[in-house]
Amino acid sequence: MTSxxxxxxxxxxxxxxxxxxxxxxxxxxxxxxxxxILTHRGYGIFGDELYYLACSDHLDWGYVDHPxxxxxxxxxxxALFGDxxxxxxxLPGLAGAATVLLTGLIARRMGAGLxxxxxxxxxxxxxxxxxxxNHYFSMNAFDILAWAAASYILILIIEGGKPTLWLWMGLxxxxxxxxxxxxxxxCFGVAVGFLLTKERRLLLNLWLLFGALIAVLLILPNILWxxxxxxxxxxxxxxxxxxxxVSMSPAAYLTEQIVLLGPLSVLVWGTGLVCLFFxxxxxxxxxxxxxxxxxxxxxxxxxxxxxxxxxxxxVLYAGGAIVIERLLRPNGxxxxxxxxxxxxxxxxxxxxxxxxxxxxxxxxxSALGIHPAxxxxxxxxxxxxxxxxxxxxxxxxxxxxxxxHSLPKDEQSKCxxxxxxxxxxxxxxxxxxxxxxxxxxxxxxxxxxxxMGGCSGEIVIxxxxxxxxxxxxxxxxxxxxxxxxxYKQPMHNNVPIFVVRKPxxxxxxxxxxxxxxx
Length: 518
Hints:
Layout (H helix, E strand, L loop, with lengths): L19 H19 L8 H10 L12 H13 L3 H25 L4 H13 L1 H6 L5 H20 L6 H15 L3 H13 L10 H23 L3 H12 L6 H12 L4 H13 L7 H16 L11 H15 L3 H18 L9 H11 L16 H4 L4 H12 L4 H4 L2 E5 L2 H10 L8 E3 L3 H4 L9 E5 L3 H4 L3 E10 L11 E9 L3 H4 L8
Parallel strand pairs: 1-2, 1-3
Antiparallel strand pairs: 3-5, 4-5
């Protein structure tokens, strides 16, 4: 199989960094990083980011809803560069740039020439789902990178690389798991692909067992944490499936893939998926086709969110780009293809990246008739939940601060703040430091494991809930304010803020009952 991966460009006398093969690989990656740096502020800090910031103040070997690696990286970033939005978000942008670069390397390794490498990289560069994921801090940005790295190593193994590559595979899977357990989905899909193709022969290798041992050793600290805490992540996953996720039909799920990746790029990844099964130039990589179908079916059955499939597309882009390169021989046609992809990418970019004023975005998305689905049951507001959760958290803290500082000094000294979810609590902890607010208490996910922070419960500011419910536990219940932001989701909007006094029973006796993992 050859597709001129090292085309003679007449640039052999140029400096290394100006050679065409280097520029093709690195320029889209650099563009990705620069784009995210220039747009890093967006609409504001994302609600999940506030929770991860709180997690980074409580370093541990695990958390209810994610492993520890990304939180350690965030902790280190904050220690080195502070708490600016750019400080928080530059690592996801860098991970996105590395993913673009790895996509080009995957394509090159599969036999792509310069055009196919560029085409595959541009597809990743402009996809709305990657723009969204690499815009803010979460483990998802590093998860996509881990999948791409694992895919690259698998391609090397398929091509007859040294058996010791299984050790690197184990290293990537182990590190990937400590970032996000969804790397196990890739392992499942790849296992299906191996079993359904002749590449299953590659599994009969002692180095594979050594690689698996490395992965297990890296995973072990989090597993021990899970055991010591009663396997909270399993409870969280079960609750998410039964109470939070939305089941989709295969057609609806496929439609969301087209929306998330951009309407034009389906011609590339769709070509890649089909040709992994039927084109002779890609037949040795067929296991990735089976991997995709297995994961697609799994996420339909388990009500996985549409973006869960996002990490597998770099390989499909690479395969599709190789076939398209063979079809588009004239340079003019290739230039048109990349130009169209960039143009459609620019049109779709506001769906994943908060670059438009919010009212302009609302009009723009309505004109396009495109409204990305969240994959969750919670009702949407004026903007999709991804953008809605970037609004209002600093305003919420300001309202709580006004209530707190309206209390007499003696009550402030013993007042606690109880929140209904980790986004509210993260906002109080992050923005409240400047106003010297007490740390938030919350029963949601890892916040519950951090306890009451020494609060006696004698006087508490409560965000959310209902007066009649609070009166079951406190004799004195006063509503002092209501938080409202027109762009937030209904579930996070119009939040009543109470001050409760004179508890009917100790807060410690109530604490086990406020826990919820979802």
